[in-house]
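Reminder to self: tokens first, then the designed residues, so the page reads top to bottom the way the pipeline ran.
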């Protein structure tokens, strides 16, 4: 699902007050991190991920890898922070994706 600019703006506003819940450190983007991101997106649909100072990962490469492997949308990249969105697979967790479709 590719996001329109209005949907992207809506998601940026929703994510503004959120704190990053996943951190990518010196071990880089490994399978445990990917699993954590999948689980968090299934529960919340919109999350922030931060790249710590000690990582060798590039934010653009991380975003591209996650988009390909998990099938999520990168809402925004700010410095070392990624805002990620993916509609939940669980029906009871689909609160935000319904609002996004209405925008």
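Designed residues (103 positions):
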């Amino acid at each position: 699902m590719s996001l329109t600019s209005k949907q992207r703006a809506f998601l940026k506003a929703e994510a503004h007050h959120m704190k990053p819940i996943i951190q990518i450190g010196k071990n880089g983007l490994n399978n445990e991190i990917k699993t954590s991101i999948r689980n968090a997106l299934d529960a919340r649909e919109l999350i922030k991920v931060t790249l710590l100072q000690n990582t060798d990962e590039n934010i653009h490469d991380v975003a591209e890898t996650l988009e390909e492997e998990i099938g999520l949308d990168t809402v925004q990249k700010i410095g070392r922070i990624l805002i990620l969105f993916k509609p939940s697979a669980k029906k009871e967790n689909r609160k935000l994706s319904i609002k996004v479709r209405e925008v």
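The mean pLDDT is 92.
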